[in-house]
Amino acid sequence: MSHMNPNDIRTLFSRAMSDLYRTEVPQYGTLCDLVNQVNDAELARNSQLARSLRRGGQLDRLEVERHGAIRVGTAEELSTIRRLFALMGMMPVGYYDLSVAGVPVHATAFRPVNDASLDHNPFRVFTSLLRLELISDVDLRERAQEILSRRKIFTARCLALLEQGEKQGGLGGEDAREFVSELLQTFKWHQEATVDLETFRRLRAAHALVADIVCFKGPHINHLTPRTLDIDLVQEGMSNAGLSAKEVIEGPPRREFPILLRQTSFLALEEPIRFLGQSGDGTHTARFGEVEQRGCALTRSGRALYDDLLAKARSTTAGSRPSSSALDIAFSEFPDDAKELFERGLAFFRFEVAQARVSEEMPPTGASSQSLVAGGWLTLTPITYEDFLPVSAAGIFRSNLGGEVRSGYESAGHQRDFESALGATVIDEISLYEATQSASLAACERRLKTECPAWSA
Ligand code: OOG
Ligand code: NI
Q1: What domains can you pick out in the chain, each with its CATH number?
Q2: Nearest CA residue ID for atom 8, ligand 1
Q3: Tens digit of pLDDT per residue, the chain (457 long)?
Q4: Exposed site from 26, 175, 205, 359, fewest CB < 10 Å?
């Protein structure tokens, strides 16, 4: 029996999650509709952008492109998630320590890693693991641990299909569809908590995220995020669409040449919850909708410059959020032009041979990629940033957890603990972008050689 391509299982999964969330949180559907309108208008207005997206393989995926976020409570939950997502071609990429933003979790993003799979459907799930050791009240910590150890977040059928998929190296079409629908059971919303109101309140007092992770039957999807081509327009359009947007867009300021990731969201819903025991009616705010605009991936030095400038903007503003003018001033130091970003080694690009220039004159043998670009033989297309910036976007947490981001959690390299819970090492995202850029350069050099066999890089 032939197996369904993992890319196709991922597409089924991302569609099913999106459909589920549309019914659970109708505002998410409203946001997606707004994003589609803005994207269509932007593509019609900006033909250069449309061409560049098409060249980069980004146009077709735009309409289905989403990321989601879940939070799990134990190592076993996390490592099982890793195995489940692997069947859909989603690998753990990057390590994010959110304790530096005052949130007691650390995380990775499960996502496809090669170009073809990303183009097929780049669905990513940001997955956080609770760090119980950051609950300082020992009693409460043990209680949380005990509650988590009792719950089973996956259906028996889901686990059986997982084992079958691993043993056979994949799933047939019918099994894959059943697998996806079983998996939805894990991520759907439950109105009933697994604890009484008193326990919820104590955990909530330790941290809103602790209560969100510990008190429910499973790791409900807490947001899904469509990708827009103009986040400022979406931000402006939200109130007309009846959505209450958070005040500011997180990430870099608006630029000619978008970098990394800009994000905003509508605020989390206050939802009725049924707690155990008598007088068990209460509410919980967890689920929201987010939107993002993706820009070019940065090299390690580009990222370091980004972090420096953000810190600079923060330091000149009272409070933890930089003002937009402070951001604009700080980021005037960040080049806003593809060629300069490439020359200074700040961002990652794909290359293409400029045929007209080559027919006019071959580049000198031994030319570096820098001189091939400077001389006009190669053109640049940005490599899209496929990852996350949760720490610089801590404002998303703040606006959705009732202002709650605490200081005082120390960070000291917990990546190894995370990886041992995960049961695997995380892939370094920068090395993925480096590999994409080098492969693209090598392909161009081969092209140039076919033009002129005596030529070499
Ligand atoms: C995860 C937040 C991270 C993003 O877009 O940076 C994230 C969470 O709230 O669980 O989704
Ligand atoms: Ni998000």
Answers
A1: 6-295+385-426 (3.10.180.80), 298-338 (no CATH), 349-382+428-457 (no CATH)
A2: 69
A3: 699 999 999 999 999 999 999 999 999 999 999 999 999 999 999 998 898 888 777 888 888 889 999 999 999 999 999 999 999 999 999 999 998 888 899 999 999 999 999 999 999 999 999 999 999 999 999 999 999 999 999 999 999 999 999 999 999 999 999 999 999 999 999 999 999 999 999 999 999 999 999 999 999 999 999 999 999 999 999 999 999 988 889 999 999 999 999 999 988 888 999 999 877 889 998 888 999 999 999 999 999 999 999 888 888 877 667 788 889 999 999 999 999 999 999 999 999 999 999 999 999 999 999 999 999 999 999 999 999 998 766 666 666 666 555 555 554 468 999 999 999 999 999 999 999 999 999 999 999 999 888 888 8
A4: 359
| Ligand 1 centroid – CA 187 distance (Å) | 15
Could you tell me which residues are beta bridge partners of residue 250? 263
User: What type of residue sits at position 277?
Assistant: G
* Cα–Cα dist 342/363, whole Å: 19
Q: Which residue's entry shows tokens 């099913």?
A: 16
Neighbour-count burial of 361, counting CB atoms closer than 10 A to its CB (0-12 exposed, 13-18 middle, 19+ buried) = exposed
Closest-lying ligand 1 atom to the alpha carbon of residue 393: 6
- DSSP H helices, 46-122, are 47-55, 75-86, 115-120
Separation of alpha carbons 35 and 53, rounded Å: 17
Q: Cα separation of 391 and 371, whole Å?
A: 36
Ligand 2 centre to CA of 245 (Å) is 15
Distance CA 390, CA 69 (A): 11
Return d(Cα 187, Cα 72) in angstroms, integer: 11
Token pair in block for residue 354:
């400029």
Which ligand 1 atom sits nearest the alpha carbon of residue 71?
10
The answer to whether residues 110 and 122 touch, using CB atoms and an 8 Å cutoff, is no
CA 186 to chain CA centroid, Å, is 20
